[in-house]
Specification:
Layout lengths: L6 E6 L2 E5 L21 E4 L7 E6 L7 E5 L3 E5 L7 E4 L6 E4 L7 E4 L3 E4 L7 E4 L5 E7 L4 E6 L13 E5 L7 E5 L2 E5 L7 E4 L4 E5 L8 E6 L2 E6 L5 E5 L7 E8 L6 E8 L12 E6 L7 E2 L3 H4 L10 E5 L2 E15 L5 E10 L7 E9 L14 E2 L2 H6 L6 E6 L7 E5 L3 E4 L6 E3 L2 E3 L5 E3 L7 E6 L7 E5 L4 E4 L7 E2 L11 E7 L7 E6 L15 H4 L2 E6 L7 E2 L10 E7 L8 E6 L3 E5 L7 E2 L10 E6 L5 E5 L2 E2 L10 E2 L2 E5 L7 E2 L8 E8 L2 E10 L2 E2 H5 L1 H6 L5 E2 L4 E5 L7 E2 L7 E6 L7 E5 L4 E4 L7 E2 L8 E6 L7 E5 L4 E4 L5
Parallel strand pairs: 30-34
Antiparallel strand pairs: 1-2, 3-67, 4-5, 5-6, 6-7, 8-9, 9-10, 10-11, 12-13, 14-15, 15-16, 16-17, 18-19, 19-20, 20-21, 22-23, 23-24, 24-25, 26-27, 27-28, 28-29, 31-32, 32-33, 33-34, 35-36, 37-38, 38-39, 39-40, 41-42, 42-43, 43-44, 45-46, 46-47, 47-48, 49-50, 50-53, 51-52, 53-54, 55-56, 56-59, ...
Length: 806
């Protein structure tokens, strides 16, 4: 996956060829300047590219709203989506609230309740108070942030997410939120809180400044509870049995009226659509939840075919006659019985009496990756329409501006779009198109990146290997980006894990592809069928990555390739290459990648090969990930430990290295270019059995249990014979790298919301300023400007800047 062998500098005319290994964090490249330079970071990439949720508007302007992604980032805009500031909270955000009284007051719920009094510039944790926290730590395969609170604290650690935040419209000192079944309230500006438990997890909290000014409504799947702000009493109103369980509540007042309506959804028990999506009823109440009625508009019930799926309903808080429904599969049948599946959004302008499509996409089989549909004709989009607009795209969420039911933001798998005219037209708000059909980030970066790759013949040409959106490259040093996957088989195109340019042949590039993303996270391999359910392989380009063709004879088309490297000592046109296939092991080619042979001699049964590293002395290091043992009958050995192997004979044989006690989960290897005996290994820390097997399988095998593993970084100074720990063993280190421009300088990046730099071969480490994304991958020194680095992330694209340490 990562090119981590080192050929110093070969100059041919104006061409500089320099290959170095990719790290996991940012670092300052000129030591004598590190303390005087200011840390600034720029996000690069095309923008968008991942699933986003919870679009939430300010009460004061429709141009100010916030959106979260499923990769822990939050994106705040104050100019209607022309540019975003990314906010990073441990575990990501679970709820947002703007204050009706104060435009600068914002609340974000994550694992804790956070408040900003200055429009998002600075943040204070208001619940639980820092004094209530006994211990904080990261744990699990995604290094989830966990709080152990004092026994006297009200913090609900069993739910661990703050949701459904509501600032009282009468008195902003009153603040409400939920954690699971608990309703929390403060009446003194979050200085103290009280909590009440209800029967089910809370999904919506509502109050207003007029006819419910003394009551707060708390919605759950089975009942609506009314909390009296004066007496603190709680009244329960059960929902009708036919709408149980209910979800996706919303509501508000009719414009220029005190009448309040609430909407809700309910999945019925009919057969799933395509074995995946539920069929859905839409309900509403006009008497504060005392009685509910099902909406029977013909478009909602789809009488001509079958009941559709609806995922979310949302309305304007002060214009609630206007509501949007989002659907992921809506069936329509031709006269001959042919079924077409649509997705998008429907809208009502009259409190649910009549509905119409405002965003209609698809029309094909409704299956991922099958290009038989159409994008919405009333959408002005950026790059995602060209890439994915003719195939199924799951719609995720929609939020409506509180004062105008015609202004809304909708999100899906790849993008955010906005309407200001009730859905007649939609405008993308995730990227800036350029005149040359390239695209520039506006801070809305939602992508998982593995590497930044440099063209040795063109310093302006760099590439990024992405999950979900494949290969992107730039011809202007990262200012704008073009997706380039022409020729990559459709079953492979989801993820490009690595890219390597040939330094002796202009425009020749190899790339590693897999239809399965997010390797090596354990969630991807819980189902034993994963090895056969996905395709992948190696592609080659002769035009700098503009077009590709498979180059995988001997691998077949079901090799999930995650890493590829080139032996620069081999002859041009007859290159020796190595590639890791996560479901097969290690492959070698001696004919420029045309044909491949499996080279697993010495590798144990676990062949989840993740990364291959080639040192200047010719030694190879192979990282194998921890994975389930599906055939194990013994509940004490339900998974294989990860491993690191070394080969001193060009992959003909492999020897397992004894780095630390098993089980352990290595991720990456790096070596000192000046001393190949000095080797570094980055490791994951402790996880649960369920991280590898899933909750159901772990329970069936005797229950979930912690798998204690040493994380951090291990160092060998004798070519792998002996090892010592040189970094916090509780940290989840994705990768370690050596700076080829600064002797003794290392970087590591973690899933612990921090990246680090060492200037003394790893003896001491300092955190890099300004970078705070929860899930970090690698750090790559900028080959064109060694004072800067690129940081690849699991969900925030690529960060570029000068890495100053604290």
């Amino acid at each position: 996956m990562r090119k981590k062998y080192y050929t110093r500098i070969n100059v041919t005319g104006s061409c500089i060829a320099f290959i170095f290994f990719i790290c996991s964090n940012t670092s300052l490249c000129q030591e004598n300047k590190s303390d005087s330079l200011k840390t600034t970071w720029e996000k690069i990439g095309p923008g968008g590219g991942g699933a986003t949720f919870l679009p939430t508007f300010s009460y004061h302007t429709p141009n100010r709203f916030i959106i979260r992604c499923d990769m822990t980032g939050s994106y705040l805009t104050s100019n209607g989506g022309q540019f975003y500031k990314q906010l990073n909270f441990d575990n990501g955000a679970a709820g947002y609230a703007f204050d009706e009284h104060n435009a600068q007051s914002i609340y974000v719920g994550s694992s804790v309740l956070n408040h900003s009094a200055d429009g998002g510039k600075t943040w204070e944790q208001v619940f639980p108070k820092r004094s209530e926290i006994k211990k904080e730590f990261y744990y699990g395969d995604h290094a989830e942030y966990t709080i152990e609170a004092e026994s006297s604290s009200l913090y609900a650690s069993e739910f661990a997410q703050v949701k459904n935040i509501c600032v009282d419209p009468v008195n902003s000192r009153f603040v409400y939120f939920s954690m699971g079944n608990y309703f929390f309230y403060s009446q003194n500006a979050c200085k103290t809180f009280k909590r009440i438990t209800v029967g089910h997890p809370i999904s919506f909290i509502y109050t207003n400044a007029t006819n419910t000014k003394n009551d707060t409504y708390i919605f759950t799947a089975a009942a609506v509870y009314v909390f009296n702000k004066l007496s603190h009493s709680l009244k329960q109103n059960d929902l009708p049995e036919k709408m149980l369980p209910a979800f996706s509540f919303c509501g508000g007042s009719i414009s220029k009226s005190n009448k309040i309506i609430f909407y809700a959804l309910h999945h019925d028990n009919e057969n799933l659509i395509q074995d995946q999506y539920n069929r859905t009823d839409v309900w509403m109440t006009e008497d504060m939840g005392a009685t509910w009625k099902k909406i029977n508009d013909p478009l909602i019930t789809n009488n001509q075919s079958a009941k559709p799926n609806f995922a979310k309903i949302s309305c304007a808080q002060f214009d609630a006659a206007h509501a949007f429904l989002i659907s992921d599969l809506y069936e329509e049948k031709d006269k001959d019985g042919t079924v077409h599946y649509w997705y998008g959004a429907l809208k009502t302008n009259d409190a649910g009496k009549q509905w119409h499509w405002v965003l209609k996409e698809g029309g094909g089989t409704g299956k991922y990756g099958i290009k038989d549909g159409t994008d919405a004709k009333n959408l002005k989009d950026a790059w995602a329409s060209k890439a994915f607009g003719d195939e199924f795209i799951e719609v995720e969420d929609i939020g409506v501006y509180p004062h105008d039911g015609n202004t809304a933001v909708l999100t899906d798998w790849y993008r955010a779009i906005k309407t200001t005219d009730g859905g007649n037209t939609w405008q993308q708000i995730y990227s800036t198109p350029q005149t040359d059909e390239s695209y520039t980030s506006i801070g809305f970066d939602v992508t998982n990146t593995y590497g930044v790759h440099f063209d040795p013949y063109d310093s302006n040409h760099i590439a990024i290997s992405y999950t979900d959106i494949g290969f992107h490259h730039s011809y202007n040093k990262g200012k704008s980006w073009i997706r380039s996957v022409k020729g990559v088989p459709a079953a492979w195109v989801n993820t490009c894990y690595w890219v390597v340019f040939d330094p002796l042949v202009k425009n020749k590039v190899w790339s590693a592809w897999s239809g399965m993303h997010d390797i090596p996270r354990g969630k991807m391999t819980r189902n034993p069928a994963w090895k056969n359910n996905f395709k992948g392989g190696v592609c080659v380009s002769e035009d700098g990555g503009k077009t590709w063709e498979p180059s995988n004879t001997g691998m077949n088309d079901n090799s999930l390739v995650t890493s590829i490297i080139i032996d620069e000592k081999s002859a041009a046109g007859k290159r020796i290459l190595y590639a890791t296939a996560y479901n097969k092991g290690i492959f070698k080619s001696t004919d420029d990648g045309k044909t491949w042979q499996l080279k697993n001699n010495g590798i144990a049964k676990n062949n989840c090969a993740f990364e291959i590293t080639l040192l200047a002395n010719g030694n190879l290091f192979l990282v194998v990930s921890a994975t389930p043992d599906y055939e194990s009958k013994n509940n004490d050995s339900l998974f294989y430990s990860g491993a690191v192997y070394q080969s001193t004979d060009a992959a003909e044989t492999w020897q397992k290295l004894n780095i630390t006690a098993e089980p352990f989960f290595p991720n990456g290897v790096a070596a000192d270019p000046d001393d190949p005996n000095r080797i570094y290994v980055a490791c994951w820390a402790g996880i649960d059995l369920s991280d590898l097997l899933g909750n159901t399988a772990a329970k069936a095998k005797g229950g979930n249990k912690k798998i204690e593993m040493k994380g951090g970084i291990f160092l060998s100074e004798d070519a792998g014979k002996t090892w010592s720990s040189i970094f916090d063993e509780q940290q989840y280190v994705y990768d370690v790298a050596v700076d080829p421009f600064n002797k003794g300088r290392l970087y590591c990046n973690t899933f612990n919301k921090a990246a680090y730099r060492s200037d003394d071969y790893g003896k001491t480490w300092k955190q890099i300023e300004g970078y705070d994304f929860h899930w970090g991958h690698r750090v790559i020194v900028d080959q064109n400007d060694p004072e800067k680095v690129y940081i690849t992330t699991f969900g925030s694209s690529v960060w570029h800047g000068i890495p100053v340490v604290k």
